[in-house]
Amino acid sequence: MMLSSRGFILVTTLILILILSSISLPMLVQASLSQKLSASATLSAQLKLRTQSKHAQQLELLQQGTIESADFVLAPCPAFYAAWSDLSFQCEWHQLRTSEASFQHQHSVTSFLVRKSLLEGGRNGSL
Q1: How many whole angstroms separate alpha carbon 59 and alpha carbon 113?
Q2: What is the layout of strands, in order, in the sheet containing 106-118?
Q3: DSSP per-residue codes, 50-107
């Protein structure tokens, strides 16, 4: 009689351990995945902030004329930028793109800058 009750206690204990393990293992996996997701989101936010900061510095240098962008087009200014409807103004359209990449993330920011200037001599050669 004693031997069968020990076997029952052993089987019951093993079943309880199995049930508790099956409950706690998914919680541990979920916690681990949550930590990885949090770290990834933090890295992504840092990359975005670094890219935007670098882009703001480059945009300021472009506005000051210290650096030139690779892409620009000289064209008549749209009415929004012109003081009056005249072709004596020309606009330089500069595109500035800043990209940063890390192991798993990439972030880029693009801005356009319009510089307005007078054409030399105006439409008929005199201002």
Answers
A1: 8
A2: 71-76, 89-101, 106-118
A3: HHHHHHHHHHHHHHHTSS--SEEEEEEPPTTT-SSS-TTEEEEEEEEEEEEE-SS-EE
Domain ranges across the chain:
2-118
Q: Which residues pair with 98 in a beta bridge?
A: 109
Q: Which residue has the higher pLDDT, 85 or 11?
A: 11
Contact 85, 91 (CB under 8 A): no
Cβ count within 10 A of residue 94: 20
- Kind and range of the H or E run holding 108: strand 106-118
The lowest-confidence range among 20-24, 73-77, 108-112, 115-119 is 73-77
Closest CA to 110 of 93, 125, 127, 123: 93
Q: Is the pLDDT of residue 91 over 80?
A: no
pLDDT band at 22 (very low <50, low <70, confident <90, very high): very high
